[in-house]
Amino acid sequence: MNFFIPLMVFLLAVSLQAKTIEDFYHKRVQTPDKVTKVFGSSPPMNYLIYALNPKKMVGLNFKAKNPNNFATKEYLDPYFLSLPVIGTFHSTGAGINLETLLISRPDLILVWADDMMVATVQKSIKRSKFPTFTVPFREIEDIPRAIKVTADTIDEQKRGKLLSTYAQKSIDEIKSKLEGVKTTRYYYAEGNDGLQTECDKSFHVEAMNFAGGENVHKCKQSNLKGLEQINIETLYKYNPEVIIAQNRMVYKNLFHNELFNNLDAVKNKRVYLVPNTPFNWIDRPPSFMRIIGIEWLANTFHPGVYNIDLNKRIKDFYKLFLQVEITDKQIQTILGENQK
After folding, report:
1. Is residue 41 within 8 Å of 125, Cβ to Cβ?
2. What's the pLDDT score for residue 16?
3. Which helix or strand (DSSP H or E) is residue 170 part of?
4. pLDDT < 70: residue spans in the chain
5. Signal peptide position in this chain (predicted)?
6. Is residue 340 a contact partner of residue 249, using CB atoms and an 8 Å limit?
7. Do 38 and 47 meet the contact criterion of CB atoms below 8 Å apart?
8. CA distance 340 to 327
9. Most exposed among 41, 230, 268, 317, judged by the fewest C-beta atoms under 10 Å?
């Protein structure tokens, strides 16, 4: 009898220190009453944790600074930059470092509901034995609810409400202003030479489509990574109104390689470099940064219709989501449109 009394007390104490949550797909999981350590199964989820509370992150999916993300201490919490690289469950390469993840002991893993890899991720993530919370974050209109529900789950309700409200307001404004407006035909230039791109329904171009763009490359995605290969003849056949360059190498190549000289977008100087400070505004990864990304894109595609004070919007976004105040000069560097 004496043995059962302390056991019951212990079990009661454990239950009082835990809570049961339900994710978007009605899966019920148990977490500590106060969630203090969280890991994202992929960059979209890890960056979402950063926006809500960087101190709750336990690791990164890849090196903070890379060709697609100019992660610099000017704009980021030093704690983020010091985190170990744990990897990602969504990788087609080396994937997750399960040993490092086990050492970090997260209270919860946020799982990105990536349609193309969901079965693989679910199978792999079971090995970690940590509770998971699945978040749809593919479509732009998923973002406000995803922010709020995730924030509630990791005990960041107040901040989650602020970010969610801002995101919803931006989304609603763009939808309203662009209603009935003719789409702008764009090409998304990726790879080293600009001749890799994405299919029109790919989540990699979700932000561009939402902001009033029409992808000229109609296809069915052929692999998990995207980056569909085309040739210069196909690009001339498309002859897009606007080209969005995914990285600086491509951006410079479009202007300096004579192969592209006769494209209307190049001749009309309607080639734009995707901002990537401190995280990419559009893609790779498609994170919360897409909220400022769609404002930039809508202004780029339809400057006469979505004629906002872009500098003010950027300052407001960085102050709220990244908790840094930036200057007009910094914005000029971030946009980097004239650095050919």
Report:
1. yes
2. 47
3. helix 157-178
4. 1-16, 91-94, 114-123, 337-340
5. 1-18
6. no
7. no
8. 22
9. 268
Position 119 scores a pLDDT of 61
For the segment(s) 179-335, the CATH number from 3.40.1490.10, 3.40.50.300, 3.40.50.1980, 3.90.180.10 is 3.40.50.1980
Phi-psi region of 154 (alpha: psi -120 to 50; beta: other; left: phi over 0): alpha
Q: Are 198 and 217 in contact (CB under 8 A)?
A: yes
Cα 281 from Cα 293, distance rounded (Å): 5
Beta strands in 36-100 (DSSP E): 38-40
Identical topology for domains 17-157 and 179-335:
yes
Domain boundaries, the chain: 17-157, 179-335
CATH label, 17-157, candidates 3.40.50.1980, 3.10.20.30, 3.40.50.300, 3.90.79.10: 3.40.50.1980
Can you give the pTM of this predicted structure? 0.90
Show the DSSP H helices in the chain as ranges: 4-16, 43-52, 78-82, 98-104, 118-125, 143-153, 157-178, 206-210, 232-238, 248-256, 264-267, 290-301, 310-317, 328-335
Could you report the per-residue pLDDT of 233-247, keeping only the tens digit for each?
999 999 999 999 999
Helix H or strand E encompassing 31: strand 28-32
Please state, in angstroms and rounded to a whole number, the distance separating the CA atoms of residues 205 and 175. 17
How confident is the model at residue 121, as a pLDDT?
A: 66
Q: Which residue has the tokens 């090409």?
A: 187
